[in-house]
C-alpha cells in the first residue's frame, strides 16, 4: 500500500534518458566494453567527422556570404558536440541524482502532491517530445529540399574528399550520412537543451512539496518535544538532498547552458551581419528570422525553470517562519532557527559561473538583441547612404578628369561627356536633398542621446568611488557612445570634402585645348559646384568631423542645454507618475495595514507623537507644493508681463503665437494650467517616499516602546506573559510587509529622481562653465542646482531614519526585562532577535541605497596626482607611436613626392631662385637638427638625474615585471633600456614634428618660384600666339604638380599634425589640472611651465609654414594678374582667366580634416593659455602665496566645500 502512495519523480526523466541512451550515455555506474564502443562510435562518426566537414568547406567558399552561412551552422554543430562531451564527463554525477530522487519519493505526501508530481513528470516528457519534434521538422525540410534538388545541393554545404556531383551513388551516400548525422544531432541537441529545464522542474516540485510539509507542521500535545521535531528533521534532511542535487546541476548543467548562451550570441551576431551586408530574398530573410527566434527561445526553458527554482528558495524562509512555531518546544525552535539561517541564501544556476540563468537574463537578452538590431540600423543608415553617394561623386570626378579633347569630333560632341557628368551631378544632389530631409533627424536624436548618456556616466564617475572594472566599463561605454556618432560625422565630412574637391576635379581636366562651348559649360559648372554640401542634423547641427571634435572643444548650445534641462524634468516627472499609477493597488493596501497598527494599545505620549508626525508630513507636502508653485508662478507671471515677447517656458507649438494675441494667451494659459498639474504631480512624487517612511518609522518606534515596557507578571501564566511579545512580532511583520511594498514601488520613483538630479546637475554645471552668464542667470542656476540636490534630501533622510530604527530594534528587544521571564518568552525573543538583525534600507531601483551617506557622497572626490603624471608621459609616447604608424602607412605617398619635386627642379629658373632654394634646404635641415637636439637634451637631463639617484629612480616611472630596486644589475638594465628607447623616441618625435614644416616650406618655395616665372612672362611679337602660351601652360602644369603634392600632404601629414594637436590638448589639460589641484614645489611648477610651453611651441612650426603656404596661394591670383597679359593673344587671355578662376581658392592644411593649421589657430591656443593663467592666478593668488588655510598647509582638494564652491 505504501508503494502505491509514493511519488515517481524519476518518471519525468524517461524521455530524456532514452535520448541519452541512444547517444551512449547510460545510467550504469561503470561502462563495459560495448558501452565504450557505442560512445566512441557516436562521437567519432557524428561529433568529429561532421564538424570537420564544415571546417573543410571554409577553405572552398566563394564569398563572405557563404562563409557566414557555413560558420553559423558549423558553430551549432561544434557547440552541440561540446555540450555532449560535458554530459559524458559528468555522467556519473547525473546518474547519482536518481538515487537521491528515489529517497525523496519515499517521503510521506498528500494525494494532491502526488498528482502534482505526476503532472510535472508528464510536462517534462512532453517538453522533451516538443523540442525533438521541432528539431526533426526543421531538419526534415532541409533534407527533403536537398533530395528534390536533382543532386544539385546537399542537406548542408560541407566538404567531402570526393566529387559527389559526378556520381549518383556518391551523392546519395553523402545525403544519407548527413540525414543520419542530423538525426543524431537532433537527439543530442534535444537532450542538451532539456536536461537543465527538466531536472530543475523536478527539483522545484520536490522543494514545493517540502514547503507544504513544513507549513502543515503543528504542535501535538500528545507527543514529546523530540517526536514533534521528528518531521522537521525529516524536512531538513530532504532539503539537504535537494541542495546536493542542485550542487550537481551547478557543476554540470550550468556549463551546458553557458555554451548555449555563447552559441546563441555568436549565431545571432552572424545572422544579423548576413542580413545587413547582403540583399537577401524573402525566403532567406524568413529563414534567418525563424533561426534567430529559435536560437533566442532555445534558452527560455532553462531561464524559466531556473527562475522558478530561485523563487522557491527565496520563499523557503518565509514558509518556515509562517509555520505554527510559537507553540512548539525549545528543541523545535532551535532547529527552526538553524534551518532558517541555512536557507536564507538564494539559489540560482550560474551559467559557467558567470551569467545567472533567470528570466531577467532571458528578457535582457531579447531586449538587447532587439535594441542591437534597431541601433545598428539607425546608426548605419546615414553613413551607408553617404558613403555610396560619395563614391558616385568620386566616380563622376574621375570621369571629368579623364575628359580629353578629340580633334576628330565637333565641339558639341566633345561637350557630350561633360553634359552627362553635369546631369549625374544633379541626380546626386537630388539624393542628397532627400537625405537632408530624412536621415538628418535620426542623427540629431543620436547627438542628443550621446549628450545625455555622456553626462550621466561622467556624474557616476565623479560621485562614487568605483572599482577599476567599473571605471573601465564606464570609459569603454563613453568611448562607444562618442564613437557611435563618428561614422555619420566621418562620411558626411567625406561627402563635404568631395563637394569641395569637385571644382578642383573640373579644373584638372584637359580644358586648355577644348572649344569655347566646353569652356563656357565648365565655368558654369564650376560656379554651380562651389557651394559646400553637408548634412545638417535636424537643420541645426552640421554633421562633420569638426562637430564630432566639438564634443571635446564644445561650442555654443546654451539654449539646447536650457530646454533639455526643463524637458527632462517634465519627462521624469511623468515617468514617476506612471509608476504610481501602476503600483496604486499596492499603496492602497498599506492603509489597511496601518489601520490594524493604529488599534494596538498605545500610551498617550505615543498617540500625541503620532499626531505630531502626521502634522509634519502634511506640512512637508504643503511646503513642497508651495515651493514648486512659487517658482513656476514667477516664470508664468514674468511671461505674462513680457508684452507677448516670451512664453513661460520656451516650447514648440504648431502655430506662430508671436503674431496673434489670442494664440499667445491661449498658449500662456495652457502652460500655466500644465505647470500647476506638474507641481501637484512633482510634489506628490517627491513626498510619497519620505511620508510613508516617516510614518513607518514612527510605528516601528512605538513597537520598540511597547517591547521595552514588557515586564513579567507573576499573576499571569507563561502564555499570557508571552502574548504581548507575540503581538509585537505580528505588528513587526505587518511593518515589514509595508516596507516590501515601498521597496517595490517608491524605490523606482526615487531612482528616477536620482537620475533626473544627475542629468540636470550636469547640464547646468556645463552651462555655467561654458558661457558667460549674468548675475541673475548665475543665481537662478545656483538655486536650481541647490533645489535639485535638496530635492533628494527628504528621501535620503527618512530612509536613513528608518534604517537606523531597524538597526536599533534588536537593542530594544534585548533591553526588555527578559531576565525574569519564562523559557517560552526567551525562546520567542531569541527567534525575534534573529529575524530582526537584518538592516532594512530602501534601494533605489535595486541599485543605490537611499541613505544620508549616499546624499553626502555627492560632494566628495579623491586625488589622482600620480595618475595624471603617468598619463601625461604615457600619452606623449603613445601619440608619438601613432604618428610613426601613420608615416609608415603613408610612406609610398610621401616617396612619390620626390619624383614630383625632381620634375619641378628641372624647370628653367634664375640664379637667384636657385640660391634661394639652396638656402631653404639648409634651413629645413637645420630645423630638423634643432628639434632633434632639443628632445635629446631634455631626455638626457632625465637620464642623468636617474643615474645619479643612487638607484632610487628610473628615467621615467614605469612598471616592469621584476623588482629593480633590489638588484643593481636589474636597475642598470632597465635604465639602459629606457635610455635607448628614449633615444629612438627622440628620433621618431623629431621626424614626426619636422615632416610637415619641411615639406610645406619646400612646397611654398616652389610656388614662389612659379609666381616669379609668371610675373616675368612678356609677349614676343616674333612668336605665334601658341608659342607665347607655351611658358604659361608650363606654369599651369607645374601649379597642378604642386597641388598634387599638397593633396598628398593633406591626406598624410595632416593626420600627424592632428594627433599633435590632440596630444598638446590632453597634456595641457592634465598639467593644468595637476597645477591647480595640488600644492607643488617650485621645481615641479617650473617643470610643468616648461613642459606646457614646449608642448605649445611644438605646434608652432606646422602652423607657421602652413600659414606661409596659405598666404602664397592667396597671392597667386595677384601674381597672375600682375603679369604682362594686356599685349598677349586671345588664347593666352582665355587660359589666364580660367587659371585665375581655379587659383582663387585658399589652400591650407586642415589637421584631420577639422582644424585649419594656421598662425591664427596657434594664436587662439596661446590666447586661451594666457587668459586661463591670468584668470586662475588672479583667483588663487592669496591661496598660492600664503599656501595655508586657517594655519595649516593646504591644497585645493583640502579646502572646505563652501570655499571650493565660491572659487
Write the layout of secondary structure elements.
Blueprint: H1 2-5, H2 14-22, H3 33-57, H4 64-89, H5 91-105, H6 111-147, H7 168-215, H8 225-277, H9 282-297, H10 300-321, H11 330-342, E1 350-351, E2 355-356, H12 359-401, H13 411-463, H14 468-484, H15 486-507, H16 516-528, E3 536-537, E4 541-542, H17 545-549, H18 558-582, H19 584-598, H20 604-640, H21 661-708, H22 718-770, H23 775-791, H24 793-815, H25 823-835, E5 843-844, E6 848-849, H26 852-856, H27 865-889, H28 891-905, H29 911-947, H30 968-1015, H31 1025-1051, H32 1053-1077, H33 1082-1098, H34 1100-1121, H35 1130-1142, E7 1150-1151, E8 1155-1156, H36 1159-1186, E9 1188-1189, E10 1192-1193, H37 1201-1206
Antiparallel strand pairs: 1-2, 3-4, 5-6, 7-8, 9-10
Helix pairs in contact: 2-7, 3-4, 3-7, 4-7, 4-8, 5-8, 6-7, 7-8, 7-10, 8-9, 8-11, 10-11, 10-12, 11-25, 12-13, 12-15, 13-14, 13-16, 13-22, 15-16, 18-21, 18-22, 19-22, 20-21, 21-22, 21-24, 22-23, 22-25, 24-25, 27-30, 27-32, 28-31, 29-30, 30-31, 30-32, 30-34, 31-35, 32-33, 34-35, 34-36
- Terminal CA distance: 88 Å
Large-scale geometry:
globular
Approximate helicity band: over 70%
Overall pLDDT level: 78
In total, how many beta strands?
A: 10
Task: Using the CA coordinates, give the radius of gyration.
Answer: 40 Å
Structural class by SSE content: mainly alpha
Range of strand content: under 5%
Low-confidence stretches are: 552-557, 859-864, 1175-1207
Q: In DSSP terms, counting alpha (H) and pi (I) runs of 4 or more, how many helices?
A: 37
**Strand order of the biggest β-sheet:** 1-2
**Describe the biggest sheet?**
2 strands, antiparallel
